[in-house]
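Sample intake sheet
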Amino acid sequence: MEYLGLLFEFLFLAIAVYLYLFATGKIKSKDATLQAKADRFRKDNGRWLKIMALAVMAIMTLNLTIHIAQILK
C-alpha cells in the first residue's frame, strides 16, 4: 500500500508539471485549430493555472520527500 501511494504522488507531480508546461506554452499541438483553442485558453486562464500548478508541484514534492524518508527509515 505504501508503494501505491508513492505511485499516485508521482502521478500527481507529473500532471502538475504537464499543466505548468501547458500554461507556459511549452507544449504545442500539431493541429492548428487545437492550438488556437489552447492559446485562447492560456490567455484567459494562464495566470491562475501556473500558480495552481506550481502549488501542486510544491506540495507533491514535499509529500514525496516525506514519503521516501519514511520508507527508508
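Comment: The chain has two helices and no strands. The radius of gyration is 15 Å.
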